[in-house]
Design brief:
Layout: H1 2-26, E1 31-35, E2 47-55, E3 60-69, H2 73-81, E4 95-111, E5 115-137, E6 155-179, E7 182-200, E8 208-209, E9 221-227, E10 230-237
Antiparallel strand pairs: 1-2, 1-10, 2-3, 3-4, 4-5, 5-6, 5-8, 6-7, 7-9, 7-10
């Protein structure tokens, strides 16, 4: 009789422990705080970004992110280390300030024990003000420049303020991977943005900027551009 009671208690104890563990693992957390660590590597808009997401029901979730833009310290230092002639690079004086705001609505279309797959629509707004130096081509030789020009001078450098705003819409695919209360969320997508660039303290705003690389994003005027968001969120669920 005593052995039967001990056996029954052992079985009950095992069942309760296992059920408690499964309940904890399968618990549906409705909220999460996220960060986007790879945003600091963005070659155009390096950002410290934090977000909050909320499950509205079994199918829909909402996400909001805000970010603070900062100087390209990391990328400049990397370029310095891997330059063909280290020590020969001089970095332009780029004072950057600005912010990002993103709102996103996700539709869960596949749900498993430790993951979810979703499609989403994201609206974003980016405000970025920079002070830096670029090279320009002289388009109008009749313009009264602050420096002397002759037939041998075709380009010049100018330091100016670049004020840029982007508003856009992205359609994204993402995967949410759960490790306990830890959340990993890789996502990518495609969209379009309306970009408005205004420049101040320029010699001549009619002169064309000489873009130095693919990531240069300082062309004066209004334009619709392609948006390709690729990132990873890391979060804590609660």
């Amino acid at each position: 009789m005593k052995n039967n009671i001990l056996t029954l208690l052992s079985v009950l104890s095992f069942y309760v422990t296992t059920n408690a563990q499964n309940t904890k693992e399968n618990k549906e957390f409705l909220n999460a705080i996220t960060i986007s660590p790879f945003s600091i590597l963005d070659p155009i808009h390096p950002t410290i970004q934090i977000g909050y997401q909320r499950a509205l029901n079994d199918t829909w979730e909402a996400q909001a992110d805000v970010g603070y833009l900062f100087n390209k310290v990391f990328l400049n230092y990397t370029a310095y280390l891997f330059a063909p002639t280290p020590g020969k690079i001089t970095f332009p004086n780029r004072k950057i300030r600005g912010f990002k705001v993103r709102t996103e609505l996700k539709r869960i279309y596949k749900k498993r024990r430790r993951s979810k797959a979703y499609l989403s629509a994201e609206i974003f707004y980016i405000k970025r003000i920079t002070e830096h130096t670029e090279s320009f081509t002289i388009e109008d030789r009749s313009f009264n420049y602050s420096f002397e020009i002759d037939d041998s001078i075709h380009n010049y450098k100018d330091t100016f303020v670049n004020n840029k705003v982007k508003v856009g819409l992205n359609i994204k695919w993402g995967m949410k991977i759960f490790i306990g209360q830890l959340l990993l969320e890789p996502h990518a997508g495609i969209g379009a943005a309306y970009r408005v660039v205004k420049q101040f303290d320029r010699e001549n705003t009619n002169d064309r900027i000489i873009q130095r690389n693919f990531f240069s994003d300082n062309q004066l005027g209004n334009k619709i551009i392609l948006s390709i968001p690729i990132n990873l969120r890391v979060g804590y669920r609660f």
